[in-house]
Automatic annotation (TrEMBL):
<protein>
    <recommendedName>
        <fullName>3-hydroxyisobutyrate dehydrogenase</fullName>
        <ecNumber>1.1.1.31</ecNumber>
    </recommendedName>
</protein>
<dbReference type="InterPro" id="IPR002204">
    <property type="entry name" value="3-OH-isobutyrate_DH-rel_CS"/>
</dbReference>
<dbReference type="InterPro" id="IPR029154">
    <property type="entry name" value="HIBADH-like_NADP-bd"/>
</dbReference>
<comment type="pathway">
    <text>Amino-acid degradation; L-valine degradation.</text>
</comment>
<dbReference type="InterPro" id="IPR036291">
    <property type="entry name" value="NAD(P)-bd_dom_sf"/>
</dbReference>
<keyword id="KW-0101">Branched-chain amino acid catabolism</keyword>
<dbReference type="Pfam" id="PF14833">
    <property type="entry name" value="NAD_binding_11"/>
</dbReference>
<dbReference type="Pfam" id="PF03446">
    <property type="entry name" value="NAD_binding_2"/>
</dbReference>
<feature type="domain" description="6-phosphogluconate dehydrogenase NADP-binding">
    <location>
        <begin position="4"/>
        <end position="163"/>
    </location>
</feature>
<dbReference type="InterPro" id="IPR015815">
    <property type="entry name" value="HIBADH-related"/>
</dbReference>
<dbReference type="InterPro" id="IPR006115">
    <property type="entry name" value="6PGDH_NADP-bd"/>
</dbReference>
<comment type="similarity">
    <text>Belongs to the HIBADH-related family.</text>
</comment>
<keyword id="KW-0520">NAD</keyword>
<dbReference type="InterPro" id="IPR008927">
    <property type="entry name" value="6-PGluconate_DH-like_C_sf"/>
</dbReference>
<keyword id="KW-0560">Oxidoreductase</keyword>
<dbReference type="InterPro" id="IPR011548">
    <property type="entry name" value="HIBADH"/>
</dbReference>
<dbReference type="InterPro" id="IPR013328">
    <property type="entry name" value="6PGD_dom2"/>
</dbReference>
Length: 297
């Protein structure tokens, strides 16, 4: 069956993003290594095919939402990859968070074959993906951006053209380095308040209206029970994994080395998430870093 859009990578983010494209009326063929995720998309009105590469031959648009650079490079490049299978005129949009140089490499390979490819990483978490309110930061040509915009608008509410190929990923790396640092800082502040007998809800409410306010405090509070819908109140399940944050901070530190930039807080944050991951928390939401700061009982 032919679909307008082939969506590859139906994880915590990709599934709700693909579901929003279905809701907007597009025929979406969804693909993932995990069958249960594909089944969920089909239950929501999407379709699938046994072979993702057979599906991409008929697509107008291919969207990928994969974990890291190596997954993106391996699915686009090579004899059996997307670039070897699509028809002329197919638009390629990668929404994964990957290294800017990796995004440029894949987009250059696409351009060499005459295809338009954009890096379009997102911010807003699984809540934003479900609500269709993600922020997209897009790297690529003006024409490519104009072609992608109608699709991105069905999944997000703020769509920015950051600049040339790879620019979307550069903005994303900067943003997530800041996010990783803020989550640790917010966790420290709440732990300090609790150690002084404060109710974390009251503390968070007041800090949200004070100069310490930030997204992790206001939308994604790391302390269980403060926000009903935050991963912290659901056993740190779902959300944005510690290992994905660790990957993003690794991208930031690598990029800092390559560009001669100083990122002392980013490097410290990377090391803290690394220790947290190695203690067995890699699959939990990144706000579980709050647990690392618990007082010994
Ligand atoms: P996830 O691990 O939940 O999902 C990734 C999915 O890709 C998995 O379901 C996996 O099975 C699938 N996959 C991997 N290789 C595949 C292949 N070859 N073919 C088909 N499917 C394949 O990750 P996520 O949380 O959805 O994040 C996806 C990307 O978005 C990451 O780059 C992440 O850094 C970024 N991101 C995540 C969040 C968040 O809050 N979770 C927010 C912004 C950006």
């Amino acid at each position: 069956m032919s679909a307008d859009i082939v969506f590859i990578g139906l994880g915590n983010m990709g599934l709700p993003m693909a579901q929003n494209l279905v809701k907007a009326g597009y025929a979406v063929s969804g693909h993932d290594l995990v069958k249960a995720s594909v089944d969920k998309l089909v239950e929501s009105g999407g379709v699938t095919e046994a072979d993702a590469m057979a599906a991409v031959t008929k697509a107008k648009v291919v969207i990928t939402m994969l974990p890291a650079s190596k997954h993106v490079e391996s699915i686009y490049l090579g004899d059996k990859g997307i670039l070897a299978n699509i028809r002329p005129g197919t638009l390629l949009i990668d929404c994964s968070t990957i290294a800017p140089e990796s995004a440029r490499k894949v987009a250059a390979a696409a351009l060499e074959k005459g295809y338009t490819m954009l890096d379009a990483p997102v911010s807003g978490g699984t809540g934003g993906a479900t609500a269709g309110t993600l922020t997209f930061m897009v790297g690529g040509t003006d024409d490519g951006f104009a072609l992608a915009r109608p699709y991105l608008e069905k999944m997000g509410k703020a769509i920015y053209h950051a600049g040339a190929s790879g620019s979307g990923q550069t903005v994303k790396v900067c943003n997530n380095m800041l996010l990783g640092i803020l989550m640790i800082g917010t966790s420290e502040a709440i732990r300090l308040g609790i150690a002084n007998g404060m109710d974390p809800k009251v503390l968070s409410e007041v800090m949200s209206k004070s100069s310490g306010r930030n997204w992790t405090l206001e939308v994604y509070n790391p302390c269980p029970g403060v926000m009903e819908n935050a991963p912290a109140s659901k056993g740190y399940a779902g959300g944005f994994g510690v290992d994905l944050m660790l990957k993003d901070l690794g991208l930031a530190v690598e990029n800092a080395l390559a560009t001669g930039s100083s990122v002392p807080m980013g490097a410290l944050a990377r090391n803290l998430y690394d220790i947290h991951s190695k203690s067995g928390s890699g699959g939990l939401d990144f706000s579980s870093v709050f647990n690392m700061l618990a007082k010994a009982k």
